[in-house]
Amino acid sequence: MRRAAVLLVFAAALAQAQTPPEPAASAASAPEPAASEPEAAPAPPPPSCAQLTSRALSSDLRAATAQSQNQPLQALVKLHDEAVAEWGAAIATCDGRARERAQRNLADSQKSRDALAEKLQAGSQCETAHRDAASLQDLARAAFGERRFSDAASLYRKAEGMWELAAEQCNGSQQQTAQRRREQSEIDGHNAEFCAPPFERAREFSGKLRNSGAALPLAERQTQSQIGETLWRDTARLCKGSAQELALNNAQALARERGTPWVATPLPGAPTAAPATVVAAAPKPAATTTGKPSANAPPAAAAATATTPLRQAAATPITPIAVAAAPVAAPPPEPKLFDRVAGDTHYIGQFTRNDDDTVSGTGRVEWKNGDVYEGPLTHSQRQGVGEIRWVGGQRYKGDWAADRATGRGAMTFANGNHYEGTVVDGQPEGEGKLTYSSGDVYSGQIRQGLPHGKGSYVWMSGQRYEGDWVNDKPQGQGKMRFANGNQYEGQMAAGLPQGAGRMVFPNGDIYEGQFEAGKANGQGKYAWKSGERYDGAWARGLKHGQGTFFWPSGDRWEGVFKDDERTDDGQVIRKGS
Fold it and tell me: Per residue in 553-574, pLDDT tens?
């Protein structure tokens, strides 16, 4: 989204055009002052708020650039110290919103400086350990992504050891970070060694079931679903952390889709264990608790232990009560969760496949180009409140209707600009607030992503405009307060005063009349705080044409002005004449 750049041009143009003119006519008619000793040159004025803010931003930029280039910590701390000092000077000079912004930036710069100082204080050993541990962790992730699970497990264990060493050599937040990453490396290493292979088998089986299950007879489909759920539950027992949670969710999704209680059903040819629900019906408490036959029993005895309770349940009047109780004791149905790829689209979440081969529910959608959506779907269309992250860095979180971002939401653009408000078809439209990466803020009506209608704009420098906008430019009736203190109220066109308006200067001077391209042009009145007045024609910000200049004494000069000077075509009229 482009910024209202022309407004900055407006500020620059007015810096010269809107400087209060001197009452030249008064000086021309007044007696020449007596000669006096030459005065010493006045001391230069102290830097303004805008100048100090600009210096501080430049310091921030230098520090950020150096950090991105991985320059030495000592140099980075020095650059951040300079930025902190510059923002402190800006706070001492600025007021209002400019001061608030300076305070926020000072806090950010101070936070970055403290983090770097902490790293510097920890010493090179801490920094080296962090870097080496992170490199090992990256190598482990790469091996895991390539399905080299044994290599990944070994690398994760090495990373775990390096993070432990970093925790010993560091302190403060660096130590806490190392401890957290050591714990995560431990979990990742365990999952790479024990969880990943069965997880892949369960995923592969579930994928085949999704693709071909609809063509199977009902009984066969139910059996395959039981096998899939068994694979996921067996996998969950071997996993830790989020992998374990995902395996259990996949198992519950199959159970909900199937609609019947789970009965442990291993893959044909796979090593068998006693099915949990069968053992639960066995008369021996030990079998119910462990779910396994005696370790000393021969294979034939193990098979008998697994099957006998079912035959007994069929022949004994009392046992069916326990068997019948199994469906009642089954957990309530869980929301459907599945992992499905359709073309370039990958669905992961609590979804239901519809008869028209679309999906409905809530979860995560990944596209091959890297875009990601998280939220609800209705017949494969985004509907409700969800978030999308484009691969280019732009993101939106808010309302969706018929697969379009429409309603209220928040949008962050790749250039750092941020918008909150109403959105139509993925574009800011209606009422909202635009915060630009520069720190400028616009609040008001928006059309096709641009300020349009009624709104206010506040610049980082402290300049402010409130009024009508047309296609990203102030146009119509509005009020402008400049960073130098000038205040304008009147008609605007293309971001500049145009038409009838009134300008009040910080020293108390006032101009009221016609403007063109930001300058007094046409008929207007200028009143100096000292008491002089001019009423007449203007051109390009200068008195030009027929006009009258009034002195506080009551005398006046009437005639023709040219380029801010009186001509011979005029006369002085004394008071009372």
Answer: 999 999 999 998 999 999 999 9
